[in-house]
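B., you asked whether I could sanity-check this one before it goes into the benchmark set. Here's the sequence:
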Amino acid sequence: MRPAGSTEPAARLGAGGVVPRPALWDRLGEATRVTVVSAPAGSGKTVLLRSWISEAGLAQRAAWVPVGRDERDPQRLWLAVLGALRQTVPGSAMVRELTAAPDLDGWAITERLLTDLVPLEELLWLVIDDLHELGADEARRQLELLVMRAPPQLRFVLATRHDVRLGLHRLRLEGELTEIRADDLRFSQAEARALFAAAGMGLAEPTLGMLYERTEGWVAGLRLAALSLAGHPDPERFAAEFSGTERTVAEYLLAEVLERQPAQVRRLLLRTSILERVNGELADLLTGASGGERVLQDLEEANAFVVSLDPARSWFRYHHLFADLLQLELRHTEPAEVTALHELAATWLTGHGYQAEAVRHAQSARDWGLAARLLADHWPGLYLGGQEATVHALMAGFPARASAADAELAAVAAADELARGSLQAAERYLGLAERGSARVPEGRRGQAQVLLGVVQLLVAGRSGNFSARADQAQRLLAAAEVPEATRPDLGEELRALALVEIGDSETWAGRLDQAESHLEQAITLARRIGRPYLEFMGLVYQAEIDLNRWFPRAEELSRQAIELAERHGWTDDLFAGFASMTLGSALSWQGRLDEAEAWVQRAERIFRAEANPAAAMGGQYVRGQLELGRGRAADALAAFRAAERLAGPHPLARPLRAWLVHALARSGETEAAEQVLAGLGERDRDRGEMRIAAAALRLAQDDPHAATVALAPVVDGSTGVGWRSWLVEAFLLEAIARDALSDQATGPALERALDLAESDSALMWFLMHPAPGLLERHARQRTAHAALIGQILDLLGGNRPAPPPAGPRAPLEPLTKSEIRVLRYLPTYLSAPEIASELSVSTTTVKTHLRNVYAKLGVHSRAEAVASARALDLLAPSAHER
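And here's what the prediction gave me:
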C-alpha cells in the first residue's frame, strides 16, 4: 500500500491553500452508511476528501487507506485498513494489532475486524482512496462483506476512478448510499476564479471564461493552467491556444509546465517518473546530480503535482496522470535511457529492502535474469510477510518460458502454485527446478539448493508424504547447516526457514534430538533478524516435541507461542491452533482436564475456520484423549472415528488405531475392537502401542492373563513404542492385570509405572485406567511415590464424568472453506441467488453448501445456523448484541 498522506493535485495552492467547497463538504458530512466519490483522474477526489476531513475536524476519527497501483494482495489491503483504523481515536481502543504472516486469510481478518468493532458507539470513517486499483476480486468481496455487516457507526467513503462492483445497489435502494460524481466535482467558474486568485493571478473575466470553457471545470486542467500561467507574458493568447479532450489539454499543459522548469528540475521529473515513489537519494542516482530531496520538497510546496508520503517529507510520489504524461515524454526524449534507469532503480531498491519494487523494475528493464535472481533472493521475506499474492503477480510479469530456463525461478513458481492450492503444478515446477539446478552458476548454487530444498519440504508436507519429507530434510541439512562465514550467499531468512522446516520434518521422523537442535538454531536466528513468525513456528514445533518428553515443558513452550501470537494478532492463525492443541494436550496429560478443555475448544474453533483436514484430525485426536481421561468413552470414540476419517497417510494414523481400540473397549464394544485388531497386518499388530491397546481390550473382556501375554514384549523391552509415555500405560496395565491374578509382580510393575509417570508428569493414564484400591494398597507399602499416589487419588476422587459442555457442540466434520465463505454471507440476509452472484458460483452450489452447513452444525434454519456459527466463533457477534 502507498503510505497514508497521498493526495491528488486538484485544488491545492501555494503552501497548502484549498479552494473551499462547502456544498460538497456538507454532502460528505451528512452522508449515512456509504459514500462513493467516482470520477476520472484529476477530478480532485482526494483533495476534496482531505479538505473535508480537515475542515470537519475529523483527523482523529477518519482512517485513510490508499490502494496501491494494481493491488492484488488482500492481506496487504487489510493490514493497511487495520493500521489506519488503529491510528484513529476510536479504533486505537478496539482494533487489535496484526502483524503480516503467511496464510493470513482476508475473510478471517474481516471477521476479526467486525468482532473488534462491535463496541463502536461513536462515528468512525474509513476512507479508501483509489479503490479502482484493487485488482483482487476476493478482497473486493471481503470489503463488501465488511460494508454490509459493519456497525452503523462505521461510515465508508470510497474514492475511485470508475464504479467498482460491490453490490452497492441494495444500499442505493435503502437510501444509505451517497454518490458524488465527475459533474459534481467540476469547479464552478467562481471556484476557478478563487483558484487563480489564490495562485496570485487576477485573470480578466474573458480569459478566465475561456480557460474555464476549455477545461470544462476539470480540476487538474485548471491546476496545470495555473502552473503554466505563472509569469506568462500573454495570458489571453495562452488561454486561446489550447482545446480538445482532457488528455490533449493535459499533454499541452504539461509541455508548458516542463518548458518553464529549470533543466535540473525537468531532468529530475522525467527520469524519476518511472518510479512509483521517489526520495532524494534515489532521485540523485537516476539524475546523476545532487540536491534531489530539496527539489522534490520545493515542487511539493509549489503544488506541482508532487505529494509527500511521510511526515518527514522524504518520500514523494507524482499524481498518476502527471506521472503517465512524464513517462510518455521520457520515452519521446530519452528512449535509450529508460532501460538503464529501471536497472539503476532495481539495484538501489534491492539494497534498501524494497524487494517487490526492485523485481518490477528489473522486469521493466526486461532483464529477466536479474529479475529472477532478485525474486529468488527475496522470496523467503515475501513468503514470511504473507505477500503470496505479490509473488504471484511478480511471477506473472515473466515471459511464459522463463521458469523452464531458470531453476531458481522454477522453485519460486512451485511455491507460488502451492500457495494457490495447485499441488500438481507445484510438483511439475519442482521437476523443472531439479533438472535445471546443474546450470545454476557456482556462486549461487548453494542458495539455489536451499531454496529448492525448502520448497520441496513445503510441497511434501502439503501432499502428506512424510517419508519423502524426512528424506528431503536430510539432503537439505547439508546445505543449510554450512556456517554463515563460508556461505555468505545464503540469506538469513532462507536459512531460518530451512531450519524450521528441517526441524519439523525430523520430529515426525522420530529424530527428536536433532529436531530440537535445529529448531533452537532457527528460533535464535529468527529473533536476531526480526522474524517473529519464524520464532512462533519454532516454538510450536518445539512444544510438539516435548509432548514426547516432558509435559510441563510442552506447556511452557505452548504458552510462549500463544503469548507471541497474541502480541502480533495471530490468535486465529493455524499455528495458534497447533499451540492451543498442544497446550490442551499437555494439560490433559498432567491431569488438569478442566484447564485443558478451554484450550482444546480454542484449537477446534481455529481448525474449523481454517478448514484444514490434517489440523482438524489432530484436534479430534486430542479431543478423544481428553474425553477418555474424563471417562466419556462414547464421546472419545466419536472423536477418534472423526479423526480416522480425516487421517489419510498422516503419521498419527497408526497410533490412532490403538486409541480407537481403547475407546471401543471402554465403550463395551469389544467385538468392534476385535475387528480393528483383526484388520491389521501382523507387523502392525505387534507394534508396542497396539499390544498395549490389545491388553486394555483383554482387561475389558476380564482376561488378565491374555493382557499380560500381550504386554510381555513391551514391558521386557523387546518391542519398542513410538511415544515414551505409552510405557506408563503398559506398566500400569501390567500392574492391574497382575493384581487381578494375585501376582507378586504387581508392586514392581506399578512402581515402574509411577517412576515413568512422575518423570514425565503423565497422570492421565491413571484417570483412563482408574485403580484407586490398587494405588491405596501400594501407598501403604514401601514406595518412593507416596506424594504422587496422593495426587492421583485426589484426581480420581474428583474425576466424575462431567456433563456435556453447555452450548453448541463442535461439528465432528470440519466445514470446508467454501462452506465457511457461504456461511459468512448468512447474516446479510441475501438470498441464495444473490450470494451465488457475489461469490461467482451457481445457485445450486450455494444451496448444496447450505445443506452441508446445516447438517454439520446440526441446525435446521438460516437463523439457527447464524446463531450456532456465532457461538462457535465462526462469525463475528452481531453489532446489536451489545
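One thing to flag: Residues 1-16, 800-806 have pLDDT under 50 and may be disordered. Otherwise nothing jumped out at me.
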